[in-house]
Amino acid sequence: MAKKFVYFFGPEGSEGDASMKNTLGGKGANLAEMCSLGIPVPAGFTISTDMCTVYYENNRNYPPELKEQVFENLEKVEEVMCKKFGDVKNPLLLSVRSGARVSMPGMMDTVLNLGLNEKTLKGLIKKRGDERFAWDSYRRFMQMYGNVVMGVDGEHFEHAIENVKKKNNLKTDVEMTVTHLKSLVAEYKKIVKKYTKKEFPTDPMEQLWGAIDAVFGSWMGDRAVYYRKMNDYPDKWGTAVNVQAMVFGNMGDDCGTGVAFTRNPATGEKVFYGEYLINAQGEDVVAGIRTPQEVTIAGSRKWSESVGISEKERKKKYPSLEEYMPEVYEELVDIYHKLENHYRDMQDIEFTIENKKLWMLQTRTGKRTAAAAVKIAVEMVNEGMISKDEALLRVKPEQIDQLLHPQFVKSEKAKAKILAKGLPASPGAATGQVVFNADKAMDWKKQGKAIILVRVETSPEDIGGMDAANGILTARGGMTSHAAVVARGMGKCCVSGCGAISIDYKTSKFTVKEEAVKEGDWISIDGTTGEVILGKVQTEQPKFEGDFDILMQWADERRVLKVRTNADTPKDSKIARDFGAEGIGLTRTEHMFFEGDRIKAMREMILADDEGGRKKALKKLIKHQRDDFYGIFKEMEGLPVTIRLLDPPLHEFLPHEPKHIKEMAQEMKVSEKKIKEKINELHEFNPMLGHRGCRLGITYPEISETQARAIIEAACDLTKEGVKVFPEIMVPLVGKSEEFTLQKDIIVKTAEKVFEEKGITVEYMVGTMIEIPRGAMTADEVAEEAEFFSFGTNDLTQMAFGYSRDDAGKFLEVYKETGVLTVDPFVSIDQEGVGQLVEMAVKRGRKTRPNIKLGICGEHGGDPSSIDFFHRCGLNYVSCSPFRVPIARLAAAHAAINNDIVREIKKTMEDAYGTIEGAVKSIYKELEKRFKKN
Amino acid sequence: MAKKFVYFFGPEGSEGDASMKNTLGGKGANLAEMCSLGIPVPAGFTISTDMCTVYYENNRNYPPELKEQVFENLEKVEEVMCKKFGDVKNPLLLSVRSGARVSMPGMMDTVLNLGLNEKTLKGLIKKRGDERFAWDSYRRFMQMYGNVVMGVDGEHFEHAIENVKKKNNLKTDVEMTVTHLKSLVAEYKKIVKKYTKKEFPTDPMEQLWGAIDAVFGSWMGDRAVYYRKMNDYPDKWGTAVNVQAMVFGNMGDDCGTGVAFTRNPATGEKVFYGEYLINAQGEDVVAGIRTPQEVTIAGSRKWSESVGISEKERKKKYPSLEEYMPEVYEELVDIYHKLENHYRDMQDIEFTIENKKLWMLQTRTGKRTAAAAVKIAVEMVNEGMISKDEALLRVKPEQIDQLLHPQFVKSEKAKAKILAKGLPASPGAATGQVVFNADKAMDWKKQGKAIILVRVETSPEDIGGMDAANGILTARGGMTSHAAVVARGMGKCCVSGCGAISIDYKTSKFTVKEEAVKEGDWISIDGTTGEVILGKVQTEQPKFEGDFDILMQWADERRVLKVRTNADTPKDSKIARDFGAEGIGLTRTEHMFFEGDRIKAMREMILADDEGGRKKALKKLIKHQRDDFYGIFKEMEGLPVTIRLLDPPLHEFLPHEPKHIKEMAQEMKVSEKKIKEKINELHEFNPMLGHRGCRLGITYPEISETQARAIIEAACDLTKEGVKVFPEIMVPLVGKSEEFTLQKDIIVKTAEKVFEEKGITVEYMVGTMIEIPRGAMTADEVAEEAEFFSFGTNDLTQMAFGYSRDDAGKFLEVYKETGVLTVDPFVSIDQEGVGQLVEMAVKRGRKTRPNIKLGICGEHGGDPSSIDFFHRCGLNYVSCSPFRVPIARLAAAHAAINNDIVREIKKTMEDAYGTIEGAVKSIYKELEKRFKKN
Prior knowledge:
Two copies of one chain form a homodimer. The first copy, chain A, has an eight-stranded mixed β-sheet. By secondary structure, the first copy, chain A, is of the alpha/beta class. The mean pLDDT of chain A is 90.
């Protein structure tokens, strides 16, 4: 028997089903599935993806059986649709579409109305009685086919239309009469001849095979090949070809076309929601030339109220489908229930009504807002439609970010003028007056102004100004630049690395091309898209209801990873705790040295010539530090708090600009020369690889001692007050176990001294960051003394790749374009490279200390795909900025579910199947089993 | 039977031998060995290192049997020496010394004359007839014992001496009479009482046990513990105690003392060479108060000629030992022959003559100059004394560096004033006039002046000036700073990171404390020691003869690793080839862009706004590049040459100082603003991790294309001329295999184009640097396309440790002091950490490409201990700067020999022994077998 390459589908059933995506492609499988459900779908057939492989294996030739099978199936379509392909009386017209197992850009799109020629055209006119409709259909078909199948540049056809309109003084396409269209068809024929040296095919069968060839040919088109390479999809997959009978919604007032959602895609509310147009084609609904009408009466009334139309007028001019064609509406309602129940998800459906007959053209899972996703998922569990696991997977972790930050009011945003685009560094929207320096930002804030801080780049000196601003815009720096990291930590909107703006601090303005924006001018920035907008745009806080909390509880029940937060202040700690953080994974102590008088004492320490001088200055700082820790510990009562000892190089605490140096000199009563000398002495060529982290604590043990003392004193004081505290003291930048041991000695000795002084002891841990490749590789030695590891994957990525995150912007874009990188490794952890270091450190750390606590506090701690990796590595927790805590909770649940599934599937496969086909089937069944609520 | 803790040695034989270093310590084992050879050594005994362990295990108590064994052995000593310990008539005096298995600072030194008290003193006077000698001996004993054993600060004793001299108006110690010495002894007693609250012990046995306690106690002294920790020596080793009879060379004219070398330690010549003093103690020879006389007649004559003394006067006043005591001399000659033959190496011996009786006090392997080491090693092979392997091991690779660079004339250096000390960045000595900028250095050079270029730090702009200078001195930067690396490459002397000097470019001077050195002043620098000297010091080129070549040939026969060089010019290539380089492992192409007009074209490329502009500028460079490669290929005819594509970030090619920016603007006819903007645009926070290496080649493919073209064109041209070339094109900074593949594509396509144009093909390879941790970890993927790896261990170290080599100076010193690092990882590869990356890349690279060629071109390629590691890793070659090629050749031979030995020892051990003792014995025997010439 010849191999089966063609699969029929039609209103009375089909040869395929939804499980056959690999053979029929996504579209084909879905059409077949709908048919199997008894839903009226225009008949058609799918040429399988296997054919594509055979086609290429045979040097772009088809096996003889294909023609036969196509012919047989075409006959079946003719029979079902009661029309004949190429018939001059009642011609069957076809659509031809590509369809691989996943949606793939670069493949051939649709060819409609295939089968038309001057003869069948006459039949169409006779049958339908609408000459203009027929000629316009023919003209459209030629244009599509000429372009997509025959490869003629679309511009030539557009140009011909323009000429006709110009010549006849027409303004729009719809003004073209049959005469105009006829002349256009003649012109199109000439164009095709000119550019392809071929006649436009008039034989319908030739047209059909031409379209099939074009679909298979597009599989090896440059863009498709490139896309597969990028996504690591094998060429062997192939594409299917879907050939389907045309139906028309534009043949009179008993015709129409529409789209609908089974639930509200904006709010998630369980109401049928859709729009339709009478006597129109599918594309007319989308094009927005005519105002579509509502499908339901309820929807229609709501609409008429909002635009101020009386119920009488509405009923007359804009009746709902429910009113206009009640039988069709009833059928549609039946179908949508069937589809939603069948696919167990909100569906986005397309339908056409041809002479009162309802045809379904598409059903697919509907896109929805974050709020809708949450509501639908939770309600479907309550309805018994899906399991909690599936509900969790229905909401993308990244999506819920929308629910946590202010957004622009949509209608306002639509009117805005977009000035430039930078990197979407920290989500949310903000509007305010432009200010170029941190001090002024703080002043203006006090005056009650809304501010956007605009800087070439930010440095720790700007923290105060960043805190005062509604949003931050920088001209330089990537997704993990100082501005981006700090802003995300603050939950503040930030657009970074906006290279298009050129800032001139001297004249207090920035320019984008010709546009100049001065200090005090209003701008708005969107940290979710990276857009910079001229003028004010109103923002609103998104609301979410109880469903969100329910979903997050389910996530918490399901996840294995704990979720902590990175927080440096009691305020941030509270936000994070409210978001569900289970402790602090990283408190950076350096930010604490910038506020108020502290920076003065810090600078005094840096300028000191000896240990004595440093100790004197540190004494001034210790009270502040202790108060900071006291506040944070109190806010996190009962939860662990990891505090990192001083990390950045000391030069970050000194001023850079002459004006500030002068101020500092006056304030501290030292010469400017001395300050400049110190700045010079501390200058580093590569500060990222310089005198920082535990290297500071080893050269100046008194710094570590002071910090340890502040931590332990605060912990003791709170313990006395009955507050439970769990301090975890973290030594940064350890590359050799000796570094850690030296620092631990200081910490332990200091703690013991404090315990004696306070007459109380507190449980505490001492551990380290693993952020230096060497530290990861020798983790077994480090773990002999370290009680916990926290992976600093930012630095680990910088050093494993040799990329400075502040500078990598210069080549990361090119790297993505050329395919060297598929994703920014600072956004999502590089599992193949940097991941090896994490896995190595986990394994080796546990070797010498089996119960070692393992976490991650780099930026990757809030990235879902990284969280999946950390789950698989077996870490105990991830830590991320407060506003990402809910995202991490959900992502951790996803990781647990997905990895359980993978494990079970693997087991099932190993148990039961030996073949690829069998494996795929088993995966499908397993998924079905898990997701179908029993 | 009680355990044996005490081992006797004496002129008639001993209980121990040289193999028992672990039990007897180094000193004890050597004394025992000499005795066994029948050499006259004052009798004594050694308390074993086991006792030390027992002592500490028993809370600092001795087992009862020790007293017994010490007593027995003391009796034996008395018998042999015909004196009695504590006897009032003929007292035996003892020396007590510590002695662990390796020489170890911080342990107790010597106590001499032990056994003296007011009674035995009288016996000594009676027996020896020299009252002053006796009282002086007593005073010295009290001072030593009081300090070393009883812990009284030595200053108190010195102070007492000063008081006596002041009171009696004496200028030197020797003027003190018996009366003075007696009063001093009385004073010493008071001092001891005051500071220890104890009487000075008068009982000789009490003195002896006090000294033994002190030796064992010193094993746990802070310094000794610290030193062991640093060197990873276990506490269990313990120290031995050596108790030996005193002999005196200062009891009259039939007494004397001397030191001698069995061969000349300066030249290696096979002549007996030594000095002695009549009626003197050992320390007098060293102290240099009296002029020592020569041991041999030949030596004595040579000396008298050099100082202009007649033969008559010489014979009378300064007779040689050969003339003065011919019998003793004969005996000494016999002994030295015996010792050299026994130890099979040049010996440094100490002897004392007491009343015409010769006593040997020490023999040890003599220190020697590099030239002597080479000569002695080669001659001993010719004499049949040692094997070639042993000869090779006798010369330390680092040592021969002395033979390759100019050195200060010793006598001149002795008079020099040392201003400051920096890092010994590039060996050799240089003298010249101070110049502070590169342009002036080149001008002055043209005027025929000798120059030392002094800079805060150097940058690629200074290359011309560095080349013009005799030596380079920088205030900042470590052993692998730009200055250091370039200077070593040039074989030019350099002192870097000399923090003590403060440079003021404006006034053209530098200051060290109060001293100011102006432009044009003469200074001298020693790149081997790091010394900076005020004024001119004459230098000389060390000479070496045929022996050196012979030794290097033996090394070449023995080594497995090939040795290549890092060279950027035909000149350097020639030097390296003359030194034995077997190819070039690294040609940096960036240096080529600084000379003459090239920098202009390079800057034009950088300033270009688009690919077209860049290509235009590159066209100007290609001819120069081709000529460069032509010259290098020709010089290296028949050998492989690895060329690295452009590596440094582009900003390095732009000027930094306003003056130079102005010049560039005028020259290139562009605005200063444009240049400044470009500098600003290219500025990087961490250039080491920035836009460099293959990241440049990927963003600007035209650069790689141009370089590949220049290489292949030069190779084709030479091939046509019949010159054999083997180009290896190297892509720098690869962290992902995709980076390499993209660059390789460009190179291969370009090469094919050139082959077609030239009508000839040339064999070539395309490979990569492994210098990014991620590149090492994913080496299996990289090796799928890369034909060779060259490890860039400088960058690999920077990134694995997270140290910027330019900045690490700020903490590396502290790290060494605190024991975090035992060695600078930029000098010697960190085998535990960075080494893992190398091993990983070797293993994974060979997995996907078994015949991959592996080399290393980082600075470590010239470091002997790193070479040993690379040998063990199984690399194919190491590459180092031209002047280190001979060192690397020798080190590679060492690596081969040592690893063969280790392998054989391991095998022997595994075969034959199960115990530690057995293993140690087997090692010793194996070494003996290998090194004893059959």
